[in-house]
Amino acid sequence: MITTKSRLYEIIFEADTKTGKIFDVSLLIVILLSILLVMLESVPSIEAEYHYLLKISEWVITGIFSLEYIMRIWIVKKPKAYIFSFYGIIDLLSVLPTYLALIVTGTHGFMVIRALRLLRVFRILKLNRYTKEGTIIIRALRNSRIKISVFLFAVVTLVIIIGTIMYLIEGGENGFTSIPRGIYWAVVTLTTVGYGDISPSTSLGQFFASIVMIMGYAIIAVPTGIVTAELSKNSSKPQSTQVCPNCMADEHSEDSIYCNKCGKKLN
Amino acid sequence: MITTKSRLYEIIFEADTKTGKIFDVSLLIVILLSILLVMLESVPSIEAEYHYLLKISEWVITGIFSLEYIMRIWIVKKPKAYIFSFYGIIDLLSVLPTYLALIVTGTHGFMVIRALRLLRVFRILKLNRYTKEGTIIIRALRNSRIKISVFLFAVVTLVIIIGTIMYLIEGGENGFTSIPRGIYWAVVTLTTVGYGDISPSTSLGQFFASIVMIMGYAIIAVPTGIVTAELSKNSSKPQSTQVCPNCMADEHSEDSIYCNKCGKKLN
Amino acid sequence: MITTKSRLYEIIFEADTKTGKIFDVSLLIVILLSILLVMLESVPSIEAEYHYLLKISEWVITGIFSLEYIMRIWIVKKPKAYIFSFYGIIDLLSVLPTYLALIVTGTHGFMVIRALRLLRVFRILKLNRYTKEGTIIIRALRNSRIKISVFLFAVVTLVIIIGTIMYLIEGGENGFTSIPRGIYWAVVTLTTVGYGDISPSTSLGQFFASIVMIMGYAIIAVPTGIVTAELSKNSSKPQSTQVCPNCMADEHSEDSIYCNKCGKKLN
Amino acid sequence: MITTKSRLYEIIFEADTKTGKIFDVSLLIVILLSILLVMLESVPSIEAEYHYLLKISEWVITGIFSLEYIMRIWIVKKPKAYIFSFYGIIDLLSVLPTYLALIVTGTHGFMVIRALRLLRVFRILKLNRYTKEGTIIIRALRNSRIKISVFLFAVVTLVIIIGTIMYLIEGGENGFTSIPRGIYWAVVTLTTVGYGDISPSTSLGQFFASIVMIMGYAIIAVPTGIVTAELSKNSSKPQSTQVCPNCMADEHSEDSIYCNKCGKKLN
């Protein structure tokens, strides 16, 4: 027997039915609108002119999200598991700040509340269930996480050394007023961001900076190489999804006829 | 019987004959000249000095393009299909603005007209028919379009979070006057563009910015990895699917005539 | 018989036992603290307020490092080999500057001493023994070192030519006051750092700069390509060199026990 | 019989003997010194102080280069072939400007002469004969030259469109005074150089710029992908250097036993 509850479950938690898809898309639009709203509210000129319109929209959206949150808790089989799951917390954080704003006072308090509301953006990630491409990228990044950590570690060491040398060369002037600031400059330069808020003025400093930048060429190649090698591996060797009916071993290459663990025929 | 029409068809629409090639190259030169003309016209000092020369050149080029457009409609078998095709619309947009300029008045109106004329640049893409390399790149990009979309999606989410945090840290000062502006800064930083029109001034802001930049290292590696993996797959030397009828060896290179394992002729 | 010396050896030089791991981690924390300390000391406002606290902490840390250094010399079998090894020198350099500071006077002298203390950061590299990923990256970089050198060589040549041309175009003005400064600009531009402290002002200069930047696109691809190709080679799943004794099939994965073509056992 | 001429030939043109290597290295040092000299001469403060020293050094170096050039012509078997070869012209251009400086007058004339002397830097490229790595990189770039051209072509088209849109958005203000300047901005942004000499000030402009930058992410991946794919191909498939003794075909795969063109056995 199909109860209202199980029908609602299908609509809210699954995306196979037509109503389920409509629900998903309209929720996405509301999320995007709510993010836009928070952004606009932070622009002083817009806030001044459309104060009441923004306030009302905010409460309408909070209402929709609250209703959705309550419904999810009511429908789901294990409410506790949902509430403390990543998306459960995000869903709660989407509505809480607006209610909190009734209590909190002070300019900075309001700013923090506003920012918290932007955590709604994580709700977009729910869309991930439509794509298996996302999981490929994430798996590639996860597989290369140790290599990337080692690399970032080396970069941090390098940046400390470079920043210190530059601090000595420029002699605490031209913006290089302390070692941390020298390190900030080294990060800005080595990552090729190059704001130009701090830049060397002495000839020796510019010479050293040139060496750092050219060195940065070779360095930027490393993470790219790591991720590319990982993604190439994933995308080239299509592994069979077959599991050996005899010994349950998986990870057979796609052209295997016999199981490479126990020698029985795969079917 | 070869009519003038079919001869003209060969010249204008095909590039196999000598006259066809001459037509293509001279048209390319006219297109490049016309683009240069529009650009120069937008430079105030040049416009002031060579006003009449630029005006005359513009009408000469519009004349040539109009003639070409009319001829294409006259020659082609299915005029309607051509007119509403991508290149048909581009061809029309190449001449229309100049005629429109006779009617339109006002400074901003003129600027828009001038810009519209620059759409002629798309005509250059017709040259694509000479290259199969372009299609390889486009195919690689198309194959990885879902992965890239997922990635850009994640970047947008990240940029909103980073921009908001920075807005909170810098407290609405030093250029970080609103959340959208914080997001603009996050985009400028994460893509390693780094204008420096907005840059953090507080110590905490510079520390956070350093983390974002180093994180950007790992992030920029992802799209490169995606496209590279795709291009590697495409460009890996196409192996012949032939199997030697004598020794059953496979993996012959595509231009092999004899089996490289037993020396028998492949068929 | 296990002496105190051999037990200490296990703790200090090895990381297999529980005490050894605790020692490593606590040493890492001290190293990170000592680096943070040196950085903070270089910030004038912090130095002014917490002068005595920083001084005391510095001596405490120097004490710990001195003790560790002496213990290492005492414990190790070949003290000479340790003293003149890379890490031995780094360990000495971690403590020497603080003692030197008692003798050295003058502002610049103090700055150099402070910077020398930062060489402690290299001690972090000792952690490398935990990761085999680091060695993969280093091996890939070492394997491609000649290619990267050739590339950097070409970049230096290019940068000299571009810098000189720009110096001629801008005529020694707008910051391009000499050829070395033109070369500095070329490096900043070609590596896509782009500070903006020197940027072309003439139309011809901006046109030439545009060409250089677009050219930089193709150039930045080269080191990435080199490192990626090297890392892909290393990371491509190591295939077993085994050939099936029954059907002569090869290309088994390294952990195969049975042939995936005929099902016979591999030996 | 070994004449002086043939002995000199070995020293100057070959690098196998010990004297040949010494000659090469000392020539390299002189070349590097001569480049440094030209650079220093362009720095006003150094030129003012060391005017005579620089002048004398310049004539000494020109003397050495002149002697080398004359000797090369005298020794080589086909002087004409050498004189009109790439390196022959570079060798001549290394000495000519200094002699020309005796005739030429005027500040800008001197600047051009100085710049011409810097063409000596190309002499460094002679060192290439020591490395086969350089040829691998160059071959990879040459193989991908059509793909890169197509890509650069697309970038130029894109940059024209983006620059024009930005010119319209910012309305000819904030540095976007003409379409070419808008295009210059588009190049600076899309290549992630980001000087910041021109940057959008309107909200719409910053929004559009953000899109362009994020788009630039996907774009920068393309040339990297092209070159990497090419380098991976070159570095993975080791081709046999064998030439078929029967039909002279080459490009056999390394494990070939029989020629894949005529079927004869390779030895």
Automatic annotation (TrEMBL), chains A, B, C, D:
It is found in: Membrane. The keyword Cell inner membrane does not apply. SUPFAM superfamilies: Voltage-gated potassium channels (SSF81324). Gene3D superfamilies: 1.10.287.70, Voltage-gated potassium channels. Chain C. The chain crosses the membrane at residues 21-40, 52-70, 82-102, 108-125, 146-169, 207-229. This is Ion transporter. It comes from Paralabilibaculum antarcticum. Residues 21-235 form the Ion transport domain. It comes from the Bacteria. Pfam families: Ion_trans (PF00520). The keyword Calcium does not apply. InterPro entries: Ion_trans_dom (IPR005821), VG_K_chnl (IPR028325), Volt_channel_dom_sf (IPR027359). It is a multi-pass membrane protein. Its main location: membrane. Keywords: Ion channel, Ion transport, Membrane, Potassium, Potassium channel, Potassium transport, Transmembrane, Transmembrane helix, Transport, Voltage-gated channel.
